[in-house]
Sequence to fold (679 residues):
Amino acid sequence: MSPITTERQGDVLVIVSNNPPVNALGAAVRQGLAAGIEEAAGDDSIKAVVIRCEGRTFFAGADITEFGKPPVEPMLPAVVDMIEACPKPVVAAIHGTALGGGLEVALGCHYRVAVPSAQLGVPEVKLGLLPGAGGTQRLPRVAGIEAAVEMCATGNPIKAARAHELGLVDAIVDEGNLAEAAIAFARDAISKGPRKARDLPIKGDPAAIEAFAQANARKFRGFDAPAANIACVEAATRLPFDEGIAFEREQFMKLIFGVQSAAQRHIFFAERKASKIDGLPEGTALRPIDKVGVIGAGTMGGGISMNFLSAGIPVTIVEMAQDALDRGTGVMRRNYESSAAKGRMTAEQVEAAMGALTPTLSLEDLADCDLIIEAVYESMDVKKEVFGKLDRIAKPGAILASNTSYLNVDEIAASTSRPGDVLGMHFFSPANVMKLLEVVRGAKTAPDTLATVMDLAKKIRKVAVVAGVCDGFIGNRMLKPRQIEAMKLLMEGATPQQIDKVHVEFGMPMGPFQMSDLAGVDIGWHRDPNRIENVRDALCAVGRWGQKTGKGFYDYDEKRNPTPSPEVQGIIDDFSAKSGATRREISNEEIVERTLYPMVNEGALILEEGMAQRASDIDVVWIYGYGWPVYRGGPMFWADTIGLKTVVEGLEKHRDAFGRDFRMSSLLTDKAAKGERFT
Ligand code: 3HC
Fold:
C-alpha cells in the first residue's frame, strides 16, 4: 500500500503522507507525491492542493538508508520541480521537523503554513552533504541570503516564528488545527495562483556570505561540506536558477560519493544504534527515576547534577564539608547564569534548576533517591566504602552508579548486597557539556537496571554506549596505548609540538600533550619529587603541572597561548640520552602509525573480548567523548577506510617499538586477511 493517500475537501486536494517514523522521502513516498500532483493537475474540479503528513512530523528528509543504493525514479529534485510546476497553488502544512528534503518539498510548494512548535532546517551538512533537491537555490530566494547560508552551512534548524519573520513560512496556525487551517489557506490562495520560489528575486546582501564564511572558518576546519554549501548559496546569488541547480547537483554528487559523507552517515546511524542493548529480554520494564542523588560536589559531581536538573529531575547532592558543598553549588549556579547571559536559558529556568537542587552533608538524605551516582575520589577503597554505606541507606530498587573512569565495577558492586542494581555511569568532563556517557554493565547488572539508565541517558540528552568491565572501559582503554606511544616517540626524537600538530591536522581538537596540559600533567602522579623515573615525573617535580600552573609540556602566557619550552626539551633530551634511545628524524606518517594504529588494535581487542557491543559503538565513544573528527567516522570506521591490511602491516612494521606487552588483535588480523571491515 502506498504511504501516500489523497482526499478531496471540496475543491482542495489534500495529499497525505503516512510513512513512520519520520515520513522520510523514500521511493514510495516520492512516487505517491508525484501521482498526487498529477491527480490535482489533471482534475478541473480541483483548484488548490495541500501536502501534509500524519504522525510525528512533516517529511524529515530524504531516506538516508537509500543513499549508496541504485537510484529509484522519480528522484527528489524532479518531484520538487513537479510540485512547483503544478498550475494550482500548493500549500505545505508543516508540523514537527521539516528537514532536508522535507524542507525542499515545502520550498517546492507555493505557500507554507506551520504550527508554532514546528522547526525547519536543512541538516544535510551534518551528513557531509548539501540540500540536493534545489534547497540551496530556493532558500536564498525565499528566506534571504543571510539566513540561507547560515541554515545550509551549519545545518541548524530554525523555529516556526523565525521562519515566519523570514518569509519562509506564510502563516502560523493553531497547533491542533493544522489540517483545516491549511485547507482554508489553500482556498484563499486560489485567486493568487501559484508563487514559484524559482521566480522570486534573490533577497539580501551577497556580502553576508563571505562574512559568514570567515566568521566560521575555525568551526568548519577539516570538513568538506560547509564550503560546498556556502559555494552553492553564493552561486544562487549570481547564476540563473537552472544554472544554480546544475551547480548544486554537481557539488552534491561530489559529496555523496566522498569518504566524509559516508563517515558522517555512519555516525548518524551508529549514534542511534548505540542505544540498543544486545541480549535484553523483550519488554523489560523500566524503573521510574524521579529523584537522583549525586555524591561529590566537585567538578564531576556538579556537572553530572546539572544534567538532571536541566531535564527537570530533582537532585540531592552530598559533600563531606560545608565549604566544599557551597563551592560546588556556587559553581553550578555560575554555570547556569553564564548560560542565561548567553541567551541559552531564561532567568526563570536558572531558578527552577537551582530550586530543584538539595545540597546536604548527610548521605542519609539519599534514602528517597531512585538513582544515586557516586562521583568521589578515584580510589577503589574509597568507592567500596561509599557503596557499602549506600547499600544500607538506599531504598530497595534504587540504582547505584559509579562515575569511575577506570575501576572494576564488579568489585565495587560486590561491596553491596545488591549487585544487580549497580553499574557504571562514566560521564566525560565537563559533564554538563560532553555528550558521551559510557554505561558500564557489570557481570551481575540486572537487565532493567541497564535498560533504565540507557533510557534515562536520552532524557538528559546524552549519547550512551554500553561498555563491559575492563580497565578504562572503551574510551580510556584506547587512549592509553596512544599516550604511551606518544611518550616513546619523544624519546626517539619527535617533539611534543610535532606530535600534537599531526593529531590536530588529523582533525582532533588537540594532540596528546596539549590534552595532558589541559587535564593536568600531575593526574595520577605519585607526588614524590625525589622519585623521578620519566619525563612526566620530571615535569611534575618542577611544577610543570599543565595549564593550571602556567606550564606543562608547553609554556603558557596569560591568555593560555602555548609556546614550545626549552626546559621541557632539555628534560626530554636528558631522559632520551639516559634511555639509550637513538634520536632520529620521526616522520609524520610514523606518528600516525605509532599513535593511531594501536588505538584501532585496542578497539579490536575490546570487540574481541565483548567489551563493546559493536564497532560502531567504539566510534561513537571517540566522536562524542574525545572529539575524534566526525568526518573520519571514528577510529574503527577510519581503519576500514584506510584498509585493515594497511593497519596490520603498519602495526607489524613497528612491533619492536611497541615492545613485549603489545598484543595484536586476532579479530583485526582475521578481518584484514579476509578483506573484511569492522563497520
Ligand atoms: N532517513 C531514514 N531514516 C531516518 C531518517 C532519514 N532521513 N531520519 C530518521 N530516521 C530514522 C532513524 O534512524 C531512527 O530509526 P531507528 O528507530 O530504527 O533507530 C528513526 O528514524 C527515528 O529517528 P530518531 O531516533 O532520530 O528520532 P528523533 O525523534 O530523536 O529525531 C529527527 C527525529 C529530528 C527527524 C532525526 O531523526 C533527524 O535529525 N533525522 C535526520 C534528518 C536529516 O538529516 N534529513 C536530511 C536527510 S538528507 C536529504 O534530505 C538529502 C536531500 O537534500 C536530497
Observations:
- The radius of gyration is 28 Å.
- Residues 292-464 form a domain with the Rossmann fold fold (CATH 3.40.50.720).
- The chain has three domains: 4-257, 292-464, 495-585.
- The chain has a mean pLDDT of 96.
